[in-house]
Specification:
122 residues, alpha+beta, 3-stranded antiparallel sheet, 5 strands, 34% helix
Length: 122
Amino acid sequence: MEVAGVLESAGFDIILNKINVTSKELAIQHKFLSSPTIRVNGKDISMEFKESACRECGDLCGDEVECRVWIYEGQEYNEPPKALIINAILKEVYGGASAEAAPSVPYVLPKNLEVFFAGRKE
């Protein structure tokens, strides 16, 4: 919401799509690499990430799983910093985002997500 006013003033239309990825099929459809994921124009806002044990998600699926650790300016965060999100939006909108094409590698659901969704199904 903090950048919405600026973008609307510049003539951009803002559409926010929240997708709750609740199944293996949705994770595959959206080519999830880690959870949680935030995308701008279909691109992950941070391809640099780590994962660490997540008790809440482990409790949900009855197994040990890891969730994304956001890396921003050399620091690690369990939740995405507001500045990371704002900068990713502005870079994408104003052309500062990388223009290189993503490599054409077949998608495979990461093991961590496979374990999570299998546990949730049971």
